[in-house]
Amino acid sequence: MSYVAPEITLDSFHCPFCGTYAHMNWAWLANTRSGQTIDYLEAECSRCRNSSLWLSREKRNVNGYFKPISGEMIFPDFGSAPLPENDMPEDVMRDYQEAASIFSKSPRGAAALLRLGLQKLCKHLGEDGKNIYEDIRNLAAKNTLPPLVVKVADTVRIAGNNAVHPGEMSDEDFDHIASKMFDLLNFIVKKGISEPKELEALYIMTPEGPRKSAEARDEKSKSENA
Predict the structure, then answer these.
(1) What is the Cα 223 distance to its own chain's centre?
(2) How far apart are CA 190 and CA 67, in angstroms?
(3) What contacts 24+ positions apart, CB below 8 Å, involve 195-200?
(4) In what order do the strands lie in the sheet with 65-75?
(5) pLDDT class for 139, splitting at 50, 70, 90?
(6) Confidence of residue 73 (pLDDT cuts 50, 70, 90)
(7) How many whole angstroms separate alpha carbon 39 and alpha carbon 41?
């Protein structure tokens, strides 16, 4: 299913800890100081039982029970971005997680970090990492990535004919771009790293005889086409 970002008004979303779409058990945190307003809640994941901490910005009384209508997650400090793919390279993941932690506060800062992470990811996939658009075009030409990724990179305006610079865009534009770039990086990791690794593992599991025959046919085909 599509990723459902954590939100204080939702009963279910993708857990920021385990990444599972799950029901959240919401509870206001007790305040021992009398006369003070309770503004904090926790949301316990019904799957992994970890709890995120939330600050309520606005709430209303519904039949004697306070219901939050706006607020933000303050722990984990990961924002509303989807979790990074497990096979994301470590240096790319650092940029991704830092971007996620500041996304709600500075979408333009998050977009800059994600662009840097995308450059590093292209280098991990064998490109030079200097021109994102050319790198993605090359990866599509090699069938490392599907050709449509080239259009997606152009559409999110970080590469190609639609590429823009910070002074040319509003915060709303950057909010849209950064949210799409989280998905783009995860997709590239899945297609360029995770799926080939899974196929290699399946290939190694095949019997040795058929595997060697396939390798011999492949070498013969290469020599004939050389």
Answers:
(1) 41
(2) 39
(3) 197/87
(4) 12-14, 21-28, 40-45, 51-62, 65-75
(5) very high
(6) confident
(7) 7
DSSP calls for the chain: -------TT-SEEE-TTT--EEEEEEEEPP--STTPPP-EEEEEETTT--EEEEEEEEEEEETTEEEEEEEEEEESTTTTPPPPPTTS-HHHHHHHHHHHHHTTT-HHHHHHHHHHHHHHHHHHTTS-SS-HHHHHHHHHHTTSS-THHHHHHHHTTSSGGG---GGG--HHHHHHHHHHHHHHHHHHHIIIIIHHHHHHHHHHHS-HHHHHHHHHHHHHHHHHH-
Neighbours of 7 (CB within 10 A): 16
Give the tokens for residue 88: 């994301």
The pLDDT of 51-58, averaged and rounded, is 90
Cα–Cα dist 176/155, whole Å: 11
